Amino acid sequence: MNAVNDNRTVRKFDDIILSSRYDIDIEMDAMQIMAEAVHPEIRYEIACIFCDSNAGSCYTIWVKTDNVSIARYIGSVMHDAIIELEGGHNGISVKECGDLFTEIFVVDPMWLGMM
After folding, report:
1. What is d(CA 86, CA 105) in angstroms, rounded to the nearest whole number?
2. Global pTM?
3. Nearest to residue 2, comparing CAs of 38, 66, 43, 47?
């Protein structure tokens, strides 16, 4: 998981690493709310959530499983949470830990005005 850099501040929530490219508190808060929305019995599958501050509201979620159904559930629940919180996002990518390039599940950018 290269999303976390030793020079970057990270926050942990329920053993999930939350990281923002520019250490923006509001992004950290949003990621925690997104993680809280996932059912606790499945939340343990989430290893890390990263927000790319350069892209604004663009998230990568690393999960501990390659189970597509679980990845889809996590991505969908987090999509709904960020839509409710911020009115949209610039994309959500769910990847398996250790794999920087292969996406298990992707949610295209969506803002309420685009629906």
Report:
1. 21
2. 0.89
3. 47
Q: Which residue has the tokens 């053993």?
A: 15
The confidence score (pLDDT) of residue 113 equals: 81
pLDDT per residue as tens digits for the range 53-101: 999 899 999 999 999 999 999 999 999 999 999 999 999 999 999 877 7
Report how far residue 115's alpha carbon sits from residue 113's, in angstroms, rounded to the nearest whole number: 6
Tokens of residue 79, six digits? 């999509």
pLDDT at 5: 47
3-class secondary structure per residue, the chain: CCCCCCCCCEEEECCEEEEECCCCHHHHHHHHHHHHHCCHHHHCCEEEEEECCCCCCCEEEEECCCCHHHHHHHHHHHHHHHHHHHCEECCEEEEECCCCCCEEEEECCEEHHHC
Q: Give the Cβ contact number of residue 15 at 10 Å.
A: 9
Cα separation of 79 and 88, whole Å? 8
